[in-house]
Design brief:
- This protein is of the alpha+beta class and 119 residues long.
- The chain has a single domain, classed as Trna Endonuclease, Chain: A, domain 1, CATH 3.40.1350.10.
- It is 36% helix and 29% strand.
- The protein has 3 helices and 6 strands.
- It has helices at 3-21, 80-91, 104-115, and strands at 26-30, 34-37, 43-46, 54-60, 63-71, 95-99.
- It has a 4-stranded mixed sheet with strand order 1-4-5-6, with helices on both faces. Strands 2-3 form a two-stranded antiparallel ribbon.
- Helix 2 (80-91) links the parallel strand 5 and strand 6 (95-99).
Amino acid sequence: MDRYKAHQNLAKKAILFASKRFPKELRLYDRHVGLLYTKNGTPMMINRKGMADCWGYYACHSILVHIEIEFKSGNARQTKEQKQWQEHIESFGGCYILCRNESEIVEKLELYLKDRKLI
């Protein structure tokens, strides 16, 4: 299986696993990064290089927690831009998760929420 398919399979399984664990509280959305070409052929940037693969929020009490998830399959590593994006998200209190297997989202999100006494 090529890297792209392994990455996509990991993302699908992990999002499904997390959604089953938190069916009402958690909402996750795919993020596509790259160029989009308009009808007249003008390139338009979609998001920024380094942004996480998935974003969403966790609703807890009357608080929304911003979540960013980067999926890595095999021995892939974060790029410099991805590390900068992680620092940016964490600087305003968001939850950034580096996910290498399907159960990691739930484990790291629960740890984040317990640290902040939200669960």
